[in-house]
Amino acid sequence: MIKRLLHTRYRVTDLEKTVGFYRDVLGLEETRRHTSGRGSQLVFFKAPGSEEEIEICKFDQSGPVVVGPDLTHLAFEVDDMEAFAREAAKKGYPLSDGPHRHGKDGAIAFIDAPEGYEIELIQRGSDE
């Protein structure tokens, strides 16, 4: 029987560029890093207030990483969409879509991570 979700994995080509994005742009905490038994380079991240982790994997033997449009995304809650967008843009990662108002004072936007993975950003409104 399933007890809980532990982590979600995304495979990448440029591990350090992606690690920098998750750490420096999204502000996630790197929880551990190691090489698997088959040779995959793995870096795990955690968002504040979350138990689940994100596993970033570099494994060149699997071939090129091809991320199709609208294939998958991660969603994170932000306190202040405008402040997040300003800081991300300063680091070279402008929003790719939005922000779009959601409810009374909430907003939804997207930012593209390295390798083409899409990140959804949600600012919850007072009515949510």
Overall description:
The strands form two sheets. Strands 1-4-3-2 form a four-stranded mixed beta sheet, covered by helices on one side. Strands 5-8-7-6 form a four-stranded mixed beta sheet, with helices on one face. β2 and β3 form a beta hairpin. The protein folds into two domains: 59 residues, Roll (2,3-Dihydroxybiphenyl 1,2-Dioxygenase, domain 1); 59 residues, 2,3-Dihydroxybiphenyl 1,2-Dioxygenase, domain 1 (Roll), CATH 3.10.180. The protein is an alpha/beta fold and 128 residues long.
Short précis:
The protein has two helices and eight strands.
Question: Any descriptors?
Answer:
single chain; 128 residues; alpha/beta; 2,3-Dihydroxybiphenyl 1,2-Dioxygenase, domain 1; 2 domains; four-stranded mixed beta sheet; 8 strands; globular
